[in-house]
Automatic annotation (TrEMBL):
<dbReference type="GO" id="GO:0051782">
    <property type="term" value="P:negative regulation of cell division"/>
</dbReference>
<dbReference type="GO" id="GO:0005829">
    <property type="term" value="C:cytosol"/>
</dbReference>
<dbReference type="GO" id="GO:0016887">
    <property type="term" value="F:ATP hydrolysis activity"/>
</dbReference>
<dbReference type="InterPro" id="IPR033875">
    <property type="entry name" value="FlhG"/>
</dbReference>
<dbReference type="Pfam" id="PF10609">
    <property type="entry name" value="ParA"/>
</dbReference>
<dbReference type="InterPro" id="IPR027417">
    <property type="entry name" value="P-loop_NTPase"/>
</dbReference>
<dbReference type="InterPro" id="IPR033756">
    <property type="entry name" value="YlxH/NBP35"/>
</dbReference>
<keyword id="KW-0547">Nucleotide-binding</keyword>
<keyword id="KW-0067">ATP-binding</keyword>
<protein>
    <submittedName>
        <fullName>P-loop NTPase</fullName>
    </submittedName>
</protein>
<dbReference type="InterPro" id="IPR025501">
    <property type="entry name" value="MinD_FleN"/>
</dbReference>
<dbReference type="InterPro" id="IPR050625">
    <property type="entry name" value="ParA/MinD_ATPase"/>
</dbReference>
<dbReference type="GO" id="GO:0009898">
    <property type="term" value="C:cytoplasmic side of plasma membrane"/>
</dbReference>
<dbReference type="GO" id="GO:0005524">
    <property type="term" value="F:ATP binding"/>
</dbReference>
């Protein structure tokens, strides 16, 4: 694993062609959408934020990094023919493994993910990185739907992203696990914590969401020295349940519903927030950070 990361650093830093390509590339906002536990609606958040961002003209790519599950596929009603693993092994280019979803949203299935990445040889790594650079030119936002919990892939993707949307619900276990995730990230990233924004899902009303946010904000600031930002609140709405059965994002099935309007508000807020560090944003920087994490 160390050898693979070292090879990648040489490829990234030692190739002038790559440097020229990076300097010309647009810098996509890379946002990791994660949670401390499963079952909080993280994948629905990813898909519906993508839909709402497209509605305001943003180009969006969703990467399903919840390896072993296919929640994004189910919500979109899409079965991709290829996965990002097909790019890793050199069989396909990145555009081949992009599945087109509603409103021209691009979706990439993660396949077996990190397990494949650490087995690549130098030439395979070079080919893979060249393909990933293309994403910066193709997207305004890259939303990474991670797995849930404190597993290595979840933590790695979260640490490498420009920003984190941390999804929780009012359930006590969900709140506790969300704090545990923040705490683990603070221990692993003592020098640099990604910007964390809290999104409280399935609230009865805004007051309940604000109460949860303030609790997490206070304990994170007091005990971890971390500032968590308030992103918003998504109400419990039967329209979302119906849309899941239809295998269609609620923002498309029921665009006037309360939950769709909430996703619209949150996406507008995201679109109006400047990236924290413009010099370090983009998918190319994400890949560099991710491989450095593998090597740590």
């Amino acid at each position: 694993m160390i050898d693979q990361a070292e090879n990648l650093r040489k490829i990234i830093h030692g190739n002038n062609q790559f440097k020229n390509e990076v300097s010309k590339a647009r810098s996509a906002r890379v946002i990791s959408i994660t949670s401390g536990k499963g079952g909080v609606g993280k994948s629905n958040v990813a898909v519906n934020l993508a839909v709402q961002l497209r509605k305001i003209g943003k180009k969006v790519v969703i990467i399903d990094a919840d390896f072993g599950l296919a929640n994004i596929e189910v919500i979109l009603g899409i079965v991709p023919q290829y996965t990002i693993s097909d790019v890793m092994n050199g069989k396909k280019v990145i555009t081949d493994v992009m599945t087109e979803g509603p409103l021209n949203i691009k979706f990439i299935s993660g396949g077996s993910g990190v397990q494949d990445l650490i087995r690549l040889n130098e030439s395979q790594l070079s080919y893979f990185i060249k393909n990933l650079y293309l994403l910066d030119k193709m997207a305004d936002f890259i939303l990474i739907d991670t797995g849930a919990g404190l597993t290595d892939p979840v933590l790695s993707f979260s640490r490498a992203a420009d920003e984190i949307i941390l999804v929780t619900t009012p359930e006590p276990t969900s709140i506790t696990d969300a704090y545990a995730l923040v705490k683990t990230l603070s221990i692993q990233n003592s020098k640099s914590i990604p910007n964390i924004k809290l999104l409280v899902n399935r609230v009865d009303d805004e007051e309940e969401g604000k109460e949860i946010y303030l609790k997490l904000k206070q304990v994170s600031k007091r005990f971890l020295g971390i500032e968590i930002e308030e992103l918003g609140y998504i109400p419990y709405d039967r329209a979302l349940v119906k849309s899941v059965k239809l295998q269609e994002p609620v923002s498309i099935s029921f665009p006037k519903s309360e939950v769709s309007r909430a996703f619209e508000d949150v996406s507008n807020k995201i679109a109006n927030i400047d990236s924290v560090d413009k010099t370090g944003s983009g998918f190319t920087s994400f890949v560099k950070r991710l491989m450095n994490i593998f090597n740590s």
